[in-house]
Specification:
Chain lengths: 410, 410
């Protein structure tokens, strides 16, 4: 969707992998659209469905049920608005509406509320269209939980150089004109900022209500509690995607990790197990490492595992270093690479990394993810055979430099 | 040196990290230049030195001795030549001479003999200067031992599109004019190819003669046999760099891996152990994975661990797949990525990978190296949390696609 919103894809239809008809034909399943499941009768193994409010309900029996209800955009009460210029960005219909507004109206100034991945993706898309943007981060901290504050500060400073304003302030209310157009946003510090479009990227919530009503247990991270086969606490009901808690590959604890690859893999596991009918070996969902990235302002911003702040928040005795290195040898064209590396003090086990640079950040985070998955220490990372090719990678890769710095600190 | 040869560095002096004087001052050691060690008296712990042939020999006693004699360019007898237009590329003096020729003469056509890293580095440098190049690969196979033939073919085809001729033929002799200039090369198939410069990139040999004369044992891979502390078979003599056999991180067997990072790390280990005088814990050289890359014709060509051919040659029951994927999501600007993945059949253990693409190949090879070092299987690689960010990396990373294909084959 960020690419579509930037105006680089001619039609939203190109983002659609399957139409309902094609999906039904490809997998030989019945697809009901414009149909809501309003309740699950776990005793009689039936779901109650309706085609809309006020319409009559009917029942469909099931042998196996999969809940893939995903997550929804969460908007704080004070910011809920019916203005035609105020958007969330969760599904393709949201994206279509935003794109239509961008294509047909002149947006002098866009305000983005929220500093997570959705906010930064939207910022990048608007900025690529040449729209002046202001992003409000209530904590003054971009990608909080993923980036530590020094890496966030580096990104804020870089975006500032591009004329993108990142404000450390909380948007408390929206000023909408009688005709439904947005006029301005009002902040906790008393400022009023005029704008012609507002994107609310204020987080998501897993859609657990239907399952909760049927008695499914939630996990501590907010999704359905599932076992390694993705079976919920209720017989014959599996769950997958953004609506379940997975198991963290670093700590072994339940983790909410609503990432596309986890949705894909867990959907496959839930489907296989729901369909197997008790024969053969059940499919298992792997442990997951929370690893993601965003392309913003010409930078790759990537992270994997735990930031220092988030590690400390779950009681780990963690330590971190931040280093600056480069993408290639000093005599070759190269760009700065910033690496923050986090490890547990006594065990020296790696906990996570954050990498920011014009190139090579995502794949370096992937290298660290490999190490996180195998329970490596900072010494194992230092012992890595990083490839040296002067035009492509320096003799001392940025991750090697970071590992060395952390060894010295430990 | 490839960057210098391409004319992108103003002076070869910029490639010099330490002058002898600066090295002596920085580390407080005596540095003798223009001095050759002609023999080692291991009984009396002395080395015999001379300042040149015919000069008188003197002795220097040692408590600890480190052999860091490196490797030298190897030229087959039939190609040895005193022509001013025929070069090897091993040390900075070689590079200076080549650069001077390129800077002062018009080179209509350069012939490169040899298809290893040095040959490809030189090819890239000459090509960047706009010089027409022909590279002779006696096996028709680029980076043999590192790349399997299908990946080599892909590279040959790409270079052909750039007007670079890769010839499957062996250069047997050189035709040098009476004035010492090169006229042509003659090949096994009877062809005669005119040229104005020849680079002989026909391999290297470790400089073991001095140590062998003193009775040091060689390892099966051709370098000195050393223990994990880099002590040779002789008391008080350590060795490091291109002149020793390391231990392969994949097979546990002795491995010749003359790579810059191994030279750096082993130099540190040998130095620490030679200097420690029996107190404290000795430094250990890590196991190494053979991983390298070259930038040629706008491509990153990277490999790590064992190719299928090389794995089979050491008796492993190996299997491989080759896939084509892309560097980013299909709707974003992206480039093809070719991955070949090698694993052991029964254990499913990863043995190596080869990655070729305009971007992201080196770092993906580094991801596989991480897995090789931890003894991962192809299933562990498939379970990786590859980062998805549409502009930076597709939902299904090329390595994930390769792992999936290999799982199916196994």
């Amino acid at each position: 969707m960020p690419i579509y919103l930037a105006g680089e894809v001619s039609s939203a239809d190109k983002l659609v992998r399957f139409t309902p008809e094609k999906f039904a034909a490809t997998y030989n399943v019945e697809v009901l659209t414009h149909t809501e499941v309003v309740s699950i009768d776990t005793e009689r193994r039936k779901v109650r469905i309706t085609s809309g409010p006020g319409e009559k309900e009917t029942s469909i029996p099931y042998d196996a049920l999969i809940l893939a209800t995903g997550a929804r955009a969460h908007v704080p009460d004070g910011l809920k608005s019916a203005s035609k210029d105020v958007f969330v960005l969760r599904d393709l219909e949201d994206a279509r509406q935003i794109a239509q507004t961008l294509d047909t109206q002149t947006i002098h100034h866009a305000v983005i509320v929220g500093s997570g991945y959705v906010g930064l993706d939207a910022l990048e898309s608007f900025h690529r269209r040449g729209i002046r943007c202001t992003l409000f981060a209530s904590s003054g901290h971009l990608l909080k939980g993923a980036l530590d504050v020094d890496m966030s500060d580096l990104l804020v400073s870089h975006l500032g150089d591009l004329g993108i304003s990142i404000r450390n302030d909380r948007v408390q209310s929206l000023d909408v004109a009688p005709d439904g157009s947005i006029r301005s946003v009002h902040t906790a510090s008393g400022e009023q900022t005029g704008c012609s479009l507002v994107l609310l990227a204020t987080g998501t919530r897993p859609n657990t209500a239907l399952g909760e009503k049927a008695g499914l247990k939630l996990g501590p991270a907010g999704g359905f509690q599932v076992d390694t086969h993705l079976l919920t606490s209720m017989a014959s009901i599996w769950a997958c995607g953004d609506v379940v808690d997975f198991t963290d590959g670093v700590t072994g604890q339940p983790l909410h990790a609503p990432l596309a690859l986890n949705a894909f893999l867990s959907g496959r596991v839930a489907g296989q197990n729901a369909a197997r009918g008790g024969t053969g070996r059940p499919a298992r969902m792997k442990k997951v490492v929370r690893a993601a990235a965003v392309a913003v302002g010409g930078l790759e911003v990537a992270h994997t595992g735990w930031s220092l702040e988030s590690a400390i928040s779950i009681g780990l005795d963690a330590v971190a270093v931040t280093i600056q290195s480069r993408s290639a040898a000093s005599l070759a064209p190269n760009n700065p690479l910033h690496v923050r590396l986090v490890a547990e003090r006594t065990s020296r086990k790696l906990l996570g990394a954050q990498v920011i640079g014009k190139e090579g950040a995502v794949q370096r985070a992937n290298v660290v993810t490999s190490h996180l998955r195998s329970g490596s220490t900072v010494d194992d990372l230092y012992d890595m055979d990083f490839i040296y090719a002067p035009r492509l990678s320096p003799l001392h890769d940025a991750l090697l430099v970071a590992a060395r710095a952390l060894q010295k600190d430990l």
